[in-house]
């Protein structure tokens, strides 16, 4: 899915069952994990294991391609 957030907006911490990639397409994103915070700039990709708690905040107007791999 394509995630679009304007500066200052966020998704609260949550979990999904499948493995996730977050590919920042434009702007800057901050991904909050249990033990650290990762900043993503355009072209950068983050991999999260299934069930990892994470939240996302836009540091500037931003969009990302989010892929969730569900196991069947």
Report on the structure:
The protein has one domain: Jelly Rolls (Sandwich). It has no helices and eight strands. It has strands spanning 2-5, 10-14, 19-26, 29-32, 37-40, 45-48, 54-58, 62-69. It has a four-stranded antiparallel beta sheet, with no helix packed on it. The chain has a four-stranded antiparallel beta sheet with strand order 2-7-4-5, with no helix packed on it. The relative contact order is 0.43. The model has no long low-confidence stretch (mean pLDDT 96).
A few lines on this structure:
The protein is mostly beta strands and 72 residues long. It has strands at residues 2-5, 10-14, 19-26, 29-32, 37-40, 45-48, 54-58, 62-69.
CATH architecture: Sandwich
Q: How would you write the strand order of the largest sheet?
A: 1-8-3-6
β content, as a range?
A: over 45%
Number of domains: 1
Termini gap: 19 Å
* Oligomer category: single chain
What fold name stands as the CATH topology? Jelly Rolls
User: For the record, what CATH class applies?
Assistant: Mainly Beta
**Structural shape:** globular
Largest sheet: 4 strands, antiparallel
SS-derived structural category: mainly beta
CATH superfamily: Jelly Rolls
One letter per element, helices H and strands E, the order comes to EEEEEEEE
Structure summary, number of beta strands: 8
Helix content: under 10%
* Mean pLDDT value: 96
Radius of gyration: 11 Å
The number of helical segments is: 0
């Amino acid at each position: 899915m394509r995630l679009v957030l304007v500066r200052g907006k966020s998704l609260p911490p949550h979990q999904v069952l499948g493995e996730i990639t977050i590919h920042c397409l434009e702007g800057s994103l901050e991904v909050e994990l249990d033990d650290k915070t990762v900043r993503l700039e355009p072209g950068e990709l983050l991999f999260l294991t299934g069930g990892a708690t994470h939240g996302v905040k836009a540091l500037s107007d931003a969009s990302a391609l989010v892929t969730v791999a569900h196991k069947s």
